[in-house]
Task: inverse folding
């Protein structure tokens, strides 16, 4: 305890006794560290099997050292971060706060190395005392924790493979008195939980009816025959596979008594919400299920009669719907554009007229979580929330790199940013009735933690990844603005390998120029941002500088910027990217003779495009790439409706245009050693796209390696088997080390990054 600990928090006194209480007290007194015993009673649950689940439950001990003002110092020995650190990192999701602001619920996800899967925990924290009860569902996915309107109950869903999906509910006060519990095979042995409702498959969400006596759940069943027959242009979706016959049933599930099915339909649903008086449900449906396009509509169903009323006649996607407290309108995320680069904004629909209007007509930025780093296997939580007085709406938006929580008045259209001005990424948020904002946030050099914004003051509530951060050297990201084609400003970030010192995470300017790996994002209408990205950190940990930029086409810089890549893949986007590379080489940060390039999806397209147009890179690693825009249109799940809009050409009357923009057309020019990687189950950019490019490279005698991951989907790199995720990054690190080396080279003057 070298003055590193400000407060020693112990959950149960008997644990301290086992450690030798007198000795601990004496050391703490000597070092002026405070001892806090959260629970004076005996720790009767300690042998609940929680440890077997492989999670360290002392996580919150680390947190509070900084929260309570303890001096935070780095351990004397740190090590380079590596791909397998995915096994150490935790993802945080779906934060919720009880109505009285006393409790928070949070889903914490860890990687289970042995089972090659994920472990889910529900953390219930008493904000005042800091006491945390942890309910582990092990390898069973736990989601949708929701407090009842008065905060007295907490419900959540656990998916248990062959046992179906279970909805559990318990009293918040009893749960918060628990220490740690492990959920086994459908029962919460000994805990004060009710196993309320079970179905084979439930839609993602769970909602309380306003009187707190029942829950809304949607059951989804689907069938897929052996021999499939399709008569629509659309027949598959990446991630879920071939189109199925789907039925959705809405259930009202009382805490006491029999569940009642009040409506069913022969199609799936998107999101749903309960009206403030509980009489009606709003839900979204796909508008043209056989077309594969993204238009959705809102429908309303009466809970008593089961009658349905269509509300909207929308031209674009609709998701994340929320009722106004008056029950007169709904807000949602989506857009009304036919373009392939349509950016989601914040909309409000009047429940009488069905008319919709944009609440942020001048704020041309994507609303919602569009990037959140690459650790978490689950999507962001970004449903807009009305203030209790119904006069304004809270939402998250990405403006350039950072993603923040904002608030907008219903009639003023000007967003006010609420979260601090750090280069940060808010990935999940919720708002209490008192207006407290609970959110999960990360930065390029700090993984996800939970924060509370109350009365204008922001407080970090957890330190779940803090112990890990103290073990490793993390690279910092320096924001830069480059000059792109037509002199457009192009935002990017340079990360340098952190110095091998025990005192700081600072980069070693004296070691420049570094071998550099350029990383290109997907989309092209994705965007890099400020989320913690293990890919970037692990490359830096291997000794590379990492450059990532948002070329034209990226979201978060306005519609015109996103549109500027349409019909021009490999054109000015390529110049934007290469100008950034030129700049960091010219400024002495990167060694122009040791350059690597990698990217996924559209980033894989750009990687294969780059090596067909320049020999400046010594190694390339395209992942989940598109190499042939012609075969893409007939084989990708979105090929037919999205491809022609993006490339302004289709296979029948724009063959030459598509060919001219296809990396495979330039494969003869490639001299760069290339490692291709792809998931075999990818239906977005089917593996044939890599097969075509790899086959041509080998046929032409160019050095190439092809790595195939069984199953999975286009998103296997964040949602797939952890061992495949780690393997991918280890191969990338090895490939670039082998081709670029990672040691210091000589020369060069440099400017500040
Ligand atoms: C629902 S249509 C959106 C398609 C989306 N493009 C957005 O710009 C997309 O899936 N793009 C693929 C590549 C394309 C099929 C050639 C892609 O790059 N996906 C990336 C990232 C991404 C996904 C969705 C929206 C933005 C970026 C990926 O999956 O990593």
Result:
């Amino acid at each position: 305890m070298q003055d590193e600990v400000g407060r020693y928090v112990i959950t149960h006194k008997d644990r301290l006794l086992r450690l030798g209480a007198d000795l601990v007290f004496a050391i703490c007194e000597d070092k002026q560290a405070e001892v806090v015993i959260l629970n004076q009673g005996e720790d009767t649950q300690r042998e609940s099997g929680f440890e077997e689940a492989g999670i360290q439950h002392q996580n919150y001990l680390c947190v509070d050292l900084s929260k309570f003002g303890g001096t935070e110092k780095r351990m004397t020995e740190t090590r380079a971060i590596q791909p397998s650190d995915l096994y150490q990192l935790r993802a945080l999701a779906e934060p919720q706060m009880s109505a009285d602001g006393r409790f928070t619920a949070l889903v914490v996800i860890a990687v289970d190395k042995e089972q090659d899967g994920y472990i889910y925990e529900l953390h219930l924290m008493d904000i005042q005392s800091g006491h945390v009860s942890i309910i582990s569902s092990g390898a069973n996915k736990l989601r949708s924790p929701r407090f009842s309107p008065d905060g007295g109950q907490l419900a959540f869903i656990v998916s248990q493979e062959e046992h179906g999906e279970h909805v559990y509910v318990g009293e918040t006060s009893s749960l918060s008195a628990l220490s740690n519990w492990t959920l086994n095979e459908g029962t919460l042995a000994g805990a004060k939980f009710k196993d309320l409702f079970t179905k084979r498959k439930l839609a993602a969400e769970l909602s309380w009816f306003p009187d707190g006596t029942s829950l809304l759940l949607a059951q989804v069943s689907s069938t897929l025959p052996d021999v499939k027959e399709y008569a629509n242009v659309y027949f598959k979706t990446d991630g879920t596979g071939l189109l199925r016959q789907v039925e959705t049933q809405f259930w009202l599930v009382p805490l006491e008594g029999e569940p009642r099915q009040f409506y069913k339909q022969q199609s799936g649903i998107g999101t749903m919400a309960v009206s403030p008086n509980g009489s009606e449900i709003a839900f979204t449906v796909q508008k043209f299920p056989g077309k594969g396009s993204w238009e959705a509509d809102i429908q309303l169903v009466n809970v008593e009669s089961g009658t349905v009323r269509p509300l909207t006649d929308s031209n674009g996607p609709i998701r994340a719907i929320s009722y106004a407290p008056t029950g007169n309108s709904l807000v949602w995320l989506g857009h009304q554009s036919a373009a392939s680069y349509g950016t989601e904004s914040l909309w409000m629909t009047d429940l009488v007229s069905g008319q919709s209007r944009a609440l942020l007509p001048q704020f041309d930025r994507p609303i919602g979580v569009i990037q959140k780093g690459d650790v978490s296997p689950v999507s962001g939580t970004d449903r807009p929330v009305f203030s209790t007085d119904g006069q304004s709406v809270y939402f998250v938006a990405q403006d350039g790199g950072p993603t923040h929580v904002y608030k907008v008045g219903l009639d003023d259209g000007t967003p006010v940013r609420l979260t601090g001005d750090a280069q940060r990424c808010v990935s999940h948020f919720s708002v209490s009735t008192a207006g407290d904002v609970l959110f999960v946030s990360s930065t390029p050099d700090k993984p996800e933690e939970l924060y509370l914004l109350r009365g204008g003051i922001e407080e970090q509530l957890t330190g779940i990844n803090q112990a890990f951060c103290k073990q490793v050297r993390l690279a910092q990201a320096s924001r830069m603005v480059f000059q792109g084609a037509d002199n457009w400003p192009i935002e990017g970030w340079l990360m340098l390998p952190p110095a091998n010192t025990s005192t700081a995470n600072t980069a070693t300017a004296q070691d420049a120029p570094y071998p550099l790996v350029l990383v290109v994002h997907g989309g092209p209408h994705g965007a890099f941002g400020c989320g913690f990205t293990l890919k970037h950190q692990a490359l830096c940990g291997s000794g590379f500088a990492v450059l990532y930029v948002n070329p034209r086409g990226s979201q978060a810089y306005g519609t015109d910027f996103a549109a500027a890549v349409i019909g021009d893949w490999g054109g000015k986007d390529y110049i934007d990217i290469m100008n950034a590379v030129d700049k960091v080489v010219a400024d002495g940060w990167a060694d122009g003779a040791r350059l690597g390039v990698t990217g996924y999806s559209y980033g894989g397209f750009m990687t294969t495009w780059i090596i067909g147009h320049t020999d400046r890179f010594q190694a390339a690693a395209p992942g989940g790439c598109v190499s042939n825009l012609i075969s893409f249109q007939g084989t990708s799940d979105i090929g037919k409706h999205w491809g022609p809009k993006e490339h302004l050409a289709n296979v029948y009357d724009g063959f030459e245009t598509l060919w001219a923009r296809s990396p495979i057309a330039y494969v003869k020019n490639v001299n760069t050693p290339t490692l291709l990687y792809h998931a075999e189950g990818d239906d977005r950019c089917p593996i044939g796209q890599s097969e075509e490019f790899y086959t041509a490279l080998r046929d032409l005698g160019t050095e190439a390696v092809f790595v195939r991951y069984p199953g999975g989907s286009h998103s296997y790199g964040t949602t797939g088997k952890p061992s495949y995720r780690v393997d991918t990054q280890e191969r990338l690190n090895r490939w670039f080390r082998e081709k670029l080396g990672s040691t210091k080279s000589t020369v060069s003057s440099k400017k500040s990054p």
Remarks:
- The longest strand covers residues 590-600.
- Residues 32 and 328 are 57 Å apart (CA to CA).
- The mean pLDDT is 88.
